[in-house]
Amino acid sequence: MSGGSNLIPREVFNETILQFLDPVRQYLEDPAVSEVMINGPDIVYIERKGQLERVPAKFASREALAAALRNMAQFVGKHVDEQRPILEGRLPDGSRVEAVLPPAAPDGPHVSIRRFFKETLTVKRLIGFGALTQDCADCLEALVASKLNILVAGGTGSGKTSMLNALAAYIPGGERVVVIEDSRELQLQREHVVQLEARPPDVKGRGAVSIRDLFRATLRMRPDRIVVGEIRGGEALDLIQAMTSGHGGCLSTLHATYPRDTLTRLETMSMMSDVDMPLLAMRVQLASAVNLIVQVGRLQDGSRKVTHITEVLGFDMQTETYQIQDVFVRQYQGLGPKGEVLSRFVPSGIMPRCLAQVHEHGLDLPAAMYDAAKQGPVQGTHG
Fold first, then answer.
1. Sequence-separated (6 or more) residues with CB below 8 Å from residue 306
2. If you count Cβ atoms within 10 Å of the first and of the last residue's Cβ in the chain, which end, N or C, has fewer?
3. CA distance 27 to 25
4. Cα of 95 vs its chain's centroid, Å
5. Domain definitions of the chain by residue range
6. The model's pTM
7. Is residue 327 within 8 Å of 139, Cβ to Cβ?
8. Which of 359, 354, 297, 294 is CA-nearest to residue 328?
9. pLDDT digits over 36-64, tens only?
10. Contact, 223 vs 177, CB < 8 A?
11. The pLDDT of residue 87 is above 60
12. In the CATH scheme, what architecture does the domain 10-114 have?
């Protein structure tokens, strides 16, 4: 998106926008706040450490809030009015803004600002938060380095992007990585990375560059790895076809709550493509393209955790179902004294079929997985 007018320095623009957003500025500058939600001028909620809370902030009037949004629209080179009441954009610091103005939002404007954190959540920090264990991290490192195709799936605000960033850190140093995103959120801490960003059409409907356009261009840029920020539509089929035609080690995210839903959702999005393919052929291709699903979730206490690492084995023609098996599972043990969810993330006792590919790369899975396999599968594992 454009960085505002050429005549006005970015810092000045930044300060101007923050002045307009003054009632919520303290929350936009608080590193513990991950989202600011403005429901009209008088009602403001924030998400802090995974929990929603209402805060006393208010805007002077509906007009003051609308003026702030018009100012923001100017920064991202867009226009909002009664004919175009939806604003999507990013603040100078990279935070994502979604706003809906009257008449589409009669009690509005309604605004959601998803904070962009400059510091990347490393695997070490995710282990510190209890999102995953060292054994799980060692397993994921071997799977990523072995060029398996991995999808990170989860609901809204479950930590998919953080997890994708963490996984991308396991890509071996000598590889060329191409990253394709709707809006730039991934921060790969590596030297050889090509970042591409989709672009919506301008006011007159011109100049759009879609994820699919970028994906097709990427295939001709000699990528060792392709990382797609989020799959949302027809590009799903492009990605699946790339995965099955020798582009190993693709990483991406999508919205889904359970591993099995992830595959049916991917199937639905593949159907949005303009390629006419028989459903059965598409399902078989999808099941052979995706090797693993890393499922993340936001638990009842607001904490974000990895809930499953699931291997995709194929598509069963007889039962018309995807064959999957859990490699790691989260076992729940009730609530602690402060209402926190007590759980353990453990190997399921099933060794993944992709172990041969891991061995081919001269790598191995953690000893804890072999130990669990001797004990036999954990209850509640997807067979």
1. 131, 132, 136, 163, 294, 295, 296, 328, 330, 345
2. C
3. 5
4. 15
5. 10-114, 123-375
6. 0.81
7. yes
8. 294
9. 999 999 999 998 877 889 999 999 999 99
10. yes
11. yes
12. 2-Layer Sandwich (3.30)
